[in-house]
Amino acid sequence: MTEPVRATLAAVAKLAGVSPSTASLAFNGSGPVAEATRERVRQAALELGYDGPDPRARSLRRGRSGIIGVVLEEALREAFRDPMNLAMLDGIADVTGAAGNSLLLLTESAGPGSALVDAPIDAAVLFGCSPVVDDKVRIVQKRGIPVVAIEGRPLPGVVDVGLDSREATRALAAHLHDLGHRRVALVTLELDRDRHRGVLNPARIDRATSFTALERIRGAQEVYPSIGGVATLGSTIDEGRLAGHALLDPGAGEAAERPTAIIAQSDLLAAGVIRAAHELGLDVPGDLSVVGFDGVRVDDPLVPELTTMVQPGLEKGRAAGRALVDLLAGREARSVAFTSAFRRGATTARAR
Amino acid sequence: MTEPVRATLAAVAKLAGVSPSTASLAFNGSGPVAEATRERVRQAALELGYDGPDPRARSLRRGRSGIIGVVLEEALREAFRDPMNLAMLDGIADVTGAAGNSLLLLTESAGPGSALVDAPIDAAVLFGCSPVVDDKVRIVQKRGIPVVAIEGRPLPGVVDVGLDSREATRALAAHLHDLGHRRVALVTLELDRDRHRGVLNPARIDRATSFTALERIRGAQEVYPSIGGVATLGSTIDEGRLAGHALLDPGAGEAAERPTAIIAQSDLLAAGVIRAAHELGLDVPGDLSVVGFDGVRVDDPLVPELTTMVQPGLEKGRAAGRALVDLLAGREARSVAFTSAFRRGATTARAR
DNA sequence: GTGCCGCGTCGAATCGATTCGACTAAGGTC
DNA sequence: GACCTTAGTCGAATCGATTCGACGCGGCAC
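Output (structure tokens, whole complex):
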């Protein structure tokens, strides 16, 4: 198993009797090369088993690696359990893949070491990142690497692909208010990286770092200024179910205290809440109205079509991808904001 | 916005009044450097806004990029919809991430162009890849890049992380046979990249390229040599549902023709089949027994606990990760085969 | 016949760091 | 005091390709 010394372009050139420069031209066809020469180089390459330039060397010289970093804050399993994230990732892959780029998965934590700062990436896209990665982002930017954020806190020099989270949540809250609901509770996405569930209170909200969760809280507060609720660890049906139980089954609580409507910050959470309601013998929307967010298909026959805000996940991803491609090509890219569409499902009804 | 020429190590060295070599040593601490010198270099770096070596140059020199390619054949959205794939990916990320590697997503199609052959990867892991990528894998291997396959067809020089798909399916089939089932049908994973659903027949099976699907078919054939069924487009509940309808509701078919048991090649498919059965008014397991494969939690209250073979997805991923890390360190790595465990759920019963 | 043009090829610089061997000076040993 | 070691630093080669400017040569125009 002795490695027979991997062939280099120089070796091919020598065998073909041309200079390395010519061989290079012959290979990537970017210059005027006589057909005979090209053929000779091809032959030599074949003979030496050379199939294409070393990507490392090429990327040093060209200053491009063809790789875009996808920066996530969670473990992959969590980030990709949410179909909305998958849709966005897919949108990004669509556009950037067509432009010849691949995606590098980077899960950033706090702390000093970091794959982000010394990964050979040409650009980066942040997936709902909180401030813990800000300094690393700054380092990356200083390298001249364009950065696009999806629903990030506005950051200087970062192109943002946004969503009307706040206004959309306000609309949902207004819908509930119109239906006569006055005791309404929130079930939020994770607020920060503490990984703590818990009751929502002003102090907790102050410490929150997740931009999207905060925006959606604020939207709800515009209609219900003193709204409370619980924070979850992320967008899953299970978390929603736990939250649902926490809100609907408060031990010896009187029924009069129970919320008549719940604003869940994602459809998966909403589905979990509805399941919890079922388990407690509550009818949705008879006893409890529930709204979600996202507009993903929840694969659960017990969950009727949700009243929710439908957001264009794939399109958001594509927009991020376009921004990345534009920036890489030296073109301008502007932040864009997508809007979600209200969809009235079968999970909200007039308050009793 | 004029780029002030990104700082290089050489510039830092000059400012600090040392040679580039010393500066390099001072940075990655791999040689004897006087504390004073180190500090001077640090200061200079700070002054110039230099934060770490260019990953491209470093990777050329070192011959390592710290990147492992994850080769998938499907669009991301499809590959990651299956929780089993996510679990494996997570296992890989666990182990390789701890060793300082990141994962590059590569979706390979047939055809000449390919991100795989000129991505700066140190190693690659194949996710259930069919022969269409074989030639590209060979090119990559020739570069001296180690390759690990998860449930791949045995390929020379490729370390395999396998599963007892065939034997496990045989066990499931035997279980059904023991229960007295004689009319049994298969619902398979996708057989190849044709993207065609369809009735399973010998010709179709002959053309199939998906190793795992084939193995599981063969396992079933050991008990039911002439078993038929339908092929799906992949492991989703929806595909299972379609397949279920195709098998259980064959137009004006007599009930006597209907299978009394179905072997689904994944739990998601099984869940879909069960849902189809419900829709047709069939009781599971009363009228129909269904077995799955994988042992993932299906989040559907209508689907009881499945009779299935539980396979260790996360562990398989970790094993693949370990193999990659070992190979990168120049150590040996041997193929491993995992076994799945029979779990009797509530979806199989004695044939009427 | 001279001059100009352009195709095809080549040399050499460059991308930015790492690393090995060599060299210097200081400290320690007998 | 001669000799040896070792810490600290430096020069130069190297990784493998890309690219720019130059150059030779043949053809064409005048």
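Chain A touches chain B through 51 residues (CB under 8 Å).
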